[in-house]
C-alpha cells in the first residue's frame, strides 16, 4: 500500500490528468459539469461535484476556460469552452504527455 505521501502524489497526478481531460473536451465542444463527471467516470475517475466544480472554476479563473449560461429544461446550465490560451496550453500538454508516454510505456 502506498504511503500518505505517495497517495498525495497520486491524487495530484490524477487531478492533473483530469484538468487535461477537461481541456480536451472543452476544446472539442461546450461541456457542463454533470456531463464531465460522467465522462471522467467512464475513464476511471470517481469524482463528484465537490472536486469537479472547483477544478472548472480554477481553469476559468486562470483564463483557460470561459463559461456561458444557457436555459435548459427550465434551469440555467453553465457551459465551458476553452479560450485561446486554453487551446494553446492543450497543444503544449499534448506534446509533453506524448513524450512522457513514450518514455514510460
Could you provide a short overview of the structure?
By secondary structure, the chain is an alpha+beta fold. Helices cover 66% and strands 15% of the residues.
Account of the 3D structure:
66% of the residues lie in helices and 15% in strands. It contains four helices and two strands, in the order αααββα. It has one domain (4-104): Winged helix-like DNA-binding domain superfamily/Winged helix DNA-binding domain (Arc Repressor Mutant, subunit A, Orthogonal Bundle). The chain is of the alpha+beta class and 105 residues long. The longest helix has 25 residues, at 4-28. It is globular, with a radius of gyration of 15 Å. α1 packs across α4. It has helices spanning 4-28, 33-42, 49-61, 84-104; strands spanning 65-72, 75-82. Strands 1-2 form a two-stranded antiparallel ribbon.
Spatially, the strands of the biggest sheet line up as 1-2
Helix amount, in percent? Answer: 55-70%
CATH class type = Mainly Alpha
Largest sheet, strands/sense/barrel: 2 strands, antiparallel
| Strand residues, percent | 15-25%
CATH H-level superfamily title: Winged helix-like DNA-binding domain superfamily/Winged helix DNA-binding domain
Per DSSP, the total helix count is 4
Distance between the termini: 23 Å
Count of structural domains: 1
Number of strands: 2
pLDDT < 50 stretches? none
Mean pLDDT: 94
Structural class: alpha+beta
**From the alpha-carbon coordinates, what is the Rg to the nearest angstrom?**
15 Å
Q: What is the fold named in CATH at topology level?
A: Arc Repressor Mutant, subunit A
Specify the overall morphology.
globular
Order of helices and strands: HHHEEH
CATH architecture tag: Orthogonal Bundle
